[in-house]
Structures are given as structure tokens and as C-alpha cells.
């Protein structure tokens, strides 16, 4: 398989700049891979994919290196002991405290064990969403900090999101993600219904509310792709995009149908009177409070 490196690419570091359109410090700039310098300050992409959508691509981007000159790097895996260790102080976790406002400790504990929810002291009360694939390889751990009352991600004074291999300072870690929760696939027979949302938080929330289905999360809307869905080829898949994202995910579902997936996309949230970008968990929280 031929693989190319492009002259310009989005910066892969955690550094963020102020977006020229929305004014939030969530802007990722393009770099010149031949000099490792940033391009003009307005050339980049806003991380607020749903709300801002600013993406100014550089002109003249072309491949500069062929895979015939590059050794393919194997994806890295983490030790499962790290997953187990992270679950020891889980009651100190902000996300768990949020869930306990709506569900019993027994329900939340079952969700913790099912999804390997961990706690991380990188930020006090932060959560680790471990990505464990269908072969029980620990592919990654996404670290996020939530408000324990609202259940919203903490984004001020900066977005509190990181990867556990960066927290552990593991050099040369080759990240290859999988769908969050897909390690549970062994408990569901082929032909079963699998529901996919974007947010890990929502997958966990829905697994408590609707336990008959396997709930998985992409982690970002761009992760809805055939490579990550490949283990689900024999399952019936229902997508539940965030509000305003139906058109994008439905287009991807149409392509995935052509690739042999049994997949449909729900427009459930599009006609609901909820804020743009809201998801199933947000909708249900309103119902539970009322």
C-alpha cells in the first residue's frame, strides 16, 4: 500500500491558537513539514467542528515522501494493568459523580466495569476513557475533565483533553484508535443491534438507560469510518448523530452501506427543541429532570 506525507499538515501537538472566526482558543494551525514552521496565522482548522466549522486549507499541498522510503510504524498498545489501576479511585471522578445524580451506584458501577472507566490525576477528578479493541488490546486512553454537576466538558481556561500516552510521556507512541466500548462485542451475537454515538459520555449514559443494545462511541465525528467499523460488519448498526450532524453522518452511512455494512442513521434529534450540538444524553437529562 502506497502512503504519502504531505508538504503541509495540521499540527499534531496539543498547542492551540485563537480561532480567527469564533475567537475561541481551539484553533489548530498548519505546519510546513519540510521546515517544521507554522504557515500564516489564519491557515488552520477550528476544533469546534459543529459550531464554528472554520477550516482554511493551504494552497499547493502535495505529497513529498512515498511509503517506499518510509518504514511503516506498527500501532502501539498499552498494558492492561494501567486500566485496572486507574479504576481504583473512581469515586473521586467528576464524571462518575455526575452520573450518580441520575442513576444508582449499582448501575454506575456496572457501567464502570463494562467500559473500563478510569480516573486520572492529570487534572483532579479527570476521567480516562480507555479504547480497548475487540481483541482486548488497549489502543489508547483519552483523558477528559468534566464538571461534576452539569456533566459538561471543562473548556476554560483551555480545553481539558489529552491522551494518556502523552500524560505518561511515552515516546514514539503510534496511536491507532478503535471505537470506544467495542471490546464488549464478544457479549453480543452477530445480527445484534449496535448503536453508535459520538461522545463516550453518551455511550455510557445510554448503556444504563437502554442496556439491551451495545452502545459505542466514535470519540469524534470524523472517526465514523469503515476502518474503525470493520469489526461490526455482521451487526445491525444504528447511528445517532448529535443535533445538526445528521446530514454528515447520513452521507457517510450511505457510503458504508455500499461497503457491505448494515447501517442506518437516525434523525431523532433533528426535530427536538434542544441546543445545536446536543446529543441523546442531553435530551434524556432534560426528561429525567422534568
UniProtKB/TrEMBL annotation:
InterPro entries found in the cross-reference section: DUF6371 (IPR045951), Zinc_ribbon_put (IPR047731)
Ranges of residues in domain Zinc beta-ribbon finger putative: 6-59
Highest taxon in the source lineage: Bacteria
Domain DUF6371: residue ranges: 93-243
Protein name: Toprim domain-containing protein
Amino acid at each position: 500500500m502506497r502512503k504519502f506525507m504531505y508538504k503541509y499538515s495540521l499540527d499534531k501537538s496539543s498547542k492551540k491558537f485563537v480561532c480567527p472566526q469564533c475567537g475561541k482558543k481551539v484553533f489548530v494551525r498548519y505546519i510546513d513539514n519540510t521546515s517544521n514552521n507554522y504557515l500564516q496565522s489564519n491557515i488552520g482548522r477550528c476544533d469546534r467542528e459543529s459550531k464554528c466549522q472554520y477550516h482554511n486549507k493551504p494552497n499547493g499541498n502535495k505529497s513529498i515522501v512515498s511509503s517506499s522510503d518510509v518504514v511503516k510504524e506498527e500501532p502501539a498498545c498499552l498494558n492492561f494493568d494501567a486500566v485496572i489501576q486507574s479504576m481504583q479511585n473512581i469515586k473521586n471522578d467528576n464524571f462518575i459523580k455526575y452520573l450518580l445524580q441520575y442513576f444508582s451506584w449499582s448501575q454506575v458501577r456496572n457501567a464502570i466495569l463494562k467500559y473500563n472507566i478510569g480516573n486520572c490525576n492529570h487534572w483532579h477528578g479527570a476521567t480516562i476513557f480507555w479504547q480497548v479493541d475487540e481483541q482486548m488490546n488497549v489502543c489508547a486512553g483519552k483523558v477528559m475533565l468534566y464538571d461534576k454537576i452539569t456533566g459538561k466538558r471543562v473548556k476554560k481556561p483551555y480545553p481539558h483533553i489529552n491522551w494518556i500516552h502523552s500524560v505518561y510521556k511515552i515516546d514514539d507512541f503510534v496511536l491507532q484508535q478503535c471505537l470506544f466500548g467495542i471490546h464488549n462485542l464478544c457479549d453480543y451475537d452477530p445480527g445484534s443491534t449496535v448503536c453508535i454515538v459520538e461522545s463516550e459520555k453518551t455511550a455510557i449514559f445510554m448503556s444504563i438507560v437502554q442496556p439491551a443494545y451495545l452502545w459505542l462511541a466514535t470519540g469524534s465525528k470524523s472517526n465514523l469510518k469503515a476502518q474503525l467499523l470493520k469489526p461490526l460488519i455482521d451487526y445491525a448498526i444504528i447511528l445517532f448523530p448529535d443535533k445538526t450532524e445528521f446530514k454528515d453522518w447520513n452521507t457517510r452511512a450511505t457510503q458504508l452501506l455500499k461497503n457491505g455494512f448494515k447501517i442506518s442513521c437516525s434523525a431523532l434529534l433533528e426535530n427536538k427543541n434542544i441546543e445545536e450540538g446536543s446529543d441523546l444524553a442531553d435530551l434524556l437529562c432534560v426528561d429525567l429532570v422534568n
